[in-house]
Each structure stands twice: as structure tokens, then as C-alpha cells.
């Protein structure tokens, strides 16, 4: 079928809305009509070249919609099912999946290649040229054809427009505080960077029973939103936060510091470690430049105070376990989805949407599709 998509043809270029050809599902694949797609900073890294991918590329990796076609051998889904995309596929049978670490499934090795899991060909083409689908998804298009390993079924009572957020921002942020972050009752948790991921680390830390949830962001309205969704204190910078955290905790500092800055740099690690308690950890969630090798930290402090710097993908939890868990949190009133989307856009306005993100105007912007797109 022919459909439209936001396509990036080169580094530092703008997204272009173009017609593309979307292939039907082959064995193990599903076609989905999307309702919405979140606008994540990770897709901006494609524009800057910090996440190198074969061009052209269809962006987007955070979506939700309804299954319209299923390919041969698909057993997990049927036409009419409501689904959320998972930017990390979970095959269920590889070594990591078998150990319960679906978020580092071996199929993730092909995330930025554009080649489908099923047959290593392109499912999106344009004038005979294969297009990469961001994270094997490409949700900056009203229709996607993807492997069933990249989808999670959700119940029909969940609003699909909001459910899209579970495919990246909510799961990644919440898990960075609760799963890989291991927040316990009474802990102090610091979240640096209050965007679509960081705001959910705040929600997760609050739900896990943290005594102090401290949000750090230079943008005032983001700090206000963090307070609304669970932060006990807010600061405009790590430098401003550090002495206050020392006073609040009687010098103990934070058990977990979560870095959800849109672009992680090596210079962010040392001040994050300075806010971390003995035996605590810095959880690095935001994306850095793929070519960057410069990290500054005090190794004396790292060793003698037994601190850790921990990477995290999808919040340290598998999509098939985390998404249902988060839906239960949503139904119980512990997870606020409605307030996360601060502005919606048409696909045609995607460049304006990313300008708004970079200027600090959004917690999470979202592309919304309707009958005109389908």
C-alpha cells in the first residue's frame, strides 16, 4: 500500500513528508494503523548524526494503534487487536529473553539497520529504494508493518492515544527509577532532565515510596510539572541541587541519580556521582553521541565509596512485562498519562514539533493521526 511518512534523507536536514510504499506482512509480521506517535529526543539524534543509521530513514518509535493485517504464522495478534509498539523487540527465545532480560533481546542488534527481523529485507520502500524504519518501527507514518516481537497487546479500555507513551517514554522513565534504579521506600532519588522520560522517572520514584524525589531542569514549567507529578523539590541545575540534597539527607546524598537529559555528555557524570550516596548509582538513560568517548569522573570516589554508573535501556525491564504492569499502575491512579502530552501535532508539522522540543516547550509532543491520514 502507499502511505505517507516523515522521511529524513541526510544528517542536519529537515524531516520531509513523502509518499512511501509499505509492504504487506510476511511470516511473523503484523500491519498496524496507528492512532498516535510520541516525539522522542532519540529521533532527533538521527538528524544530528549522533545515532548513525542508513539513510533515508522513517523516524518514530513510540506508537499505538489497531492491527489491520497479520502475516503467516502470527499467533500473538489478530485483526482488531489494540497494540503498543516496543522500540526494543522481545523474541522470547534468545539467551537474554530466556533469562528474563527482554530489554536486551538479541534481535535488538538490528535496531538501526532498517532490515526486518523476519527476512532481512526492507518493509518500507520509495522508488525501489529501501528505507530504514527507526528501531524497526517507523511510527512517523500512519501505517507500519513490523515483526510481532515489536508489539505488545493492550486491553481495549486503554485510550490508544495515551497508550503510545508506554512504548518508550513511560516505560523507560518509570523503570529507570523502579526496576534498574531499584528505588526503595525512604530513598532519595534525583532525576536530571524532565522531558518525556524524566517525568516518568519522577512518577516511578514517587510510586516506589521515595522520601525525596528531586527534579532538576533549567525550564521552569518542567519543574512545575515535576512537582505536580510527584517531585518533592526542584532545582535548575545539578550545581544548585547538590548542597540542598546534602542538607535534606544529613550528608547521605541520593541512593539513585537518574540522568534523562536529552543529550548525555561525559561532563554530566561527575556532578551526578557527587550527588550519589555511598553504594548508590547513577543510572544513565539519555542518549549520547555514538562517537563520544569522553567521560570525566573521580575514580578515587568511585572505588572508595563503591558507587556505580549503570546504563539502562527500556528502564531495565522487558516490554511484555513492563507495559501490562504500567497499565495496572494507570488504572490504580499511580501513573498519570493524560498530563504527559503537552501539545499535539499533525505529521506535517513535525519539524515545528521538534523545534518546540529543543526550545523546552514540551514534556512530550505527540503526532495524532485520524481519518484524513488513513
Instruction: Please outline the major beta sheet.
Output: 7 strands, mixed
Helicity range of the residues? 10-25%
The N- to C-terminal Cα distance equals: 11 Å
- Overall pLDDT metric: 95
Low-pLDDT runs of 5+ residues are: none
Q: Name the overall outline.
A: globular
> What portion of residues belong to β-strands?
25-35%
Task: Please report the number of helical segments.
Answer: 11
Radius of gyration: 20 Å
Structure classification: alpha/beta
What's the β-strand tally?
20
Q: What does this molecule look like?
A:
The chain contains eleven helices and 20 strands. Helix content is about 25%, strand content about 25%. Helix 4 (about 170-180) packs across helix 5. The model has no long low-confidence stretch (mean pLDDT about 95). Strands 3, 5, 6, 9, 10, 19 and 20 form a seven-stranded mixed beta sheet that branches. Strands 13-12-11-14-16-18 form a six-stranded parallel beta sheet, sandwiched between helices. It has a five-stranded mixed barrel with strand order 1-2-7-8-4. By secondary structure, it is an alpha/beta fold.
Secondary-structure topology with pairs:
Elements: E1 2-8, E2 16-22, E3 29-39, H1 41-48, E4 57-58, E5 63-70, E6 82-85, H2 95-98, E7 124-126, E8 129-133, E9 143-147, E10 151-154, H3 160-163, H4 169-178, E11 188-192, H5 198-207, E12 212-216, H6 220-228, E13 233-235, H7 238-248, E14 254-259, E15 263-264, H8 269-274, E16 276-284, E17 287-288, H9 299-304, E18 308-311, H10 319-331, E19 341-345, H11 350-358, E20 364-368
Parallel strand pairs: 4-8, 11-12, 11-14, 12-13, 14-16, 15-17, 16-18, 19-20
Antiparallel strand pairs: 1-2, 1-4, 2-7, 3-5, 3-9, 3-20, 5-6, 6-10, 7-8
Amino acid at each position: 500500500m502507499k502511505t505517507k511518512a516523515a522521511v529524513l534523507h541526510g544528517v542536519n536536514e529537515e524531516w520531509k513528508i513523502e509518499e512511501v510504499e509499505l509492504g504487506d506482512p510476511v511470516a511473523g509480521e503484523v500491519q498496524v494503523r496507528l492512532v498516535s506517535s510520541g516525539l522522542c529526543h532519540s529521533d532527533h539524534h538521527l538528524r544530528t548524526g549522533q545515532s548513525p543509521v542508513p539513510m533515508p530513514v522513517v523516524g518514530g518509535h513510540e506508537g499505538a494503534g489497531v492491527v489491520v493485517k497479520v502475516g503467516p504464522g502470527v499467533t500473538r495478534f489478530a485483526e482488531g487487536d489494540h497494540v503498543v509498539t516496543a522500540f526494543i523487540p522481545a523474541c522470547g527465545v534468545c539467551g537474554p529473553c530466556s533469562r528474563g532480560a527482554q530489554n536486551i533481546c538479541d534481535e535488538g542488534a538490528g535496531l538501526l539497520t532498517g532490515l526486518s527481523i523476519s527476512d532481512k529485507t526492507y518493509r518500507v520502500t520509495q522508488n525501489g529504494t529501501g528505507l530504514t524504519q527507526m528501531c524497526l518501527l517507523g511510527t512517523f507514518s500512519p501505517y507500519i508493518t513490523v515483526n510481532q516481537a515489536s508489539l505488545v497487546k493492550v486491553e481495549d479500555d486503554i485510550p490508544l492515544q495515551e497508550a503510545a507513551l508506554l512504548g518508550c517514554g513511560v516505560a523507560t522513565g518509570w523503570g529507570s527509577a523502579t526496576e534498574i534504579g531499584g528505588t526503595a521506600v525512604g530513598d532519595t532519588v534525583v532525576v536530571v532532565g524532565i522531558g518525556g522520560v524524566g517525568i516518568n522517572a519522577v512518577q516511578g520514584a514517587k510510586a516506589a515510596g521515595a522520601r525525596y524525589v528531586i527534579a532538576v531542569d533549567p525550564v521552569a514549567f518542567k519543574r512545575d510539572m515535576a512537582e505536580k507529578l510527584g517531585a518533592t523539590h526542584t532545582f535548575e541545575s545539578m550545581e544548585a541541587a547538590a548542597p540542598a540534597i546534602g542538607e535534606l539527607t544529613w550528608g547521605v546524598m541520593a541512593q539513585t541519580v537518574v540522568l534523562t537529559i536529552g543529550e548525555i555528555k561525559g561532563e554530566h557524570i561527575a556532578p551526578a556521582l557527587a550527588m550519589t550516596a555511598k553504594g548508590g548509582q547513577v543510572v544513565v538513560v539519555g542518549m549520547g553521541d555514538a562517537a563520544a568517548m569522553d567521560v570525566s569522573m573521580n575514580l578515587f570516589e568511585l572505588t572508595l565509596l563503591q558507587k556505580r554508573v549503570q546504563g539502562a535501556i527500556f528502564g531495565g525491564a522487558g516490554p511484555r512485562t513492563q507495559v501490562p504492569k504500567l497499565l495496572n499502575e494507570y488504572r490504580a491512579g499511580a501513573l498519570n498519562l493524560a498530563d504527559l502530552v503537552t501539545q499535539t501535532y499533525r505529521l506535517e508539522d513535525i519539524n515545528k514539533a521538534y523545534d518546540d522540543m529543543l526550545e523546552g516547550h514540551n514534556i512530550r509532543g505527540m503526532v495524532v493521526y485520524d481519518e484524513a491520514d488513513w
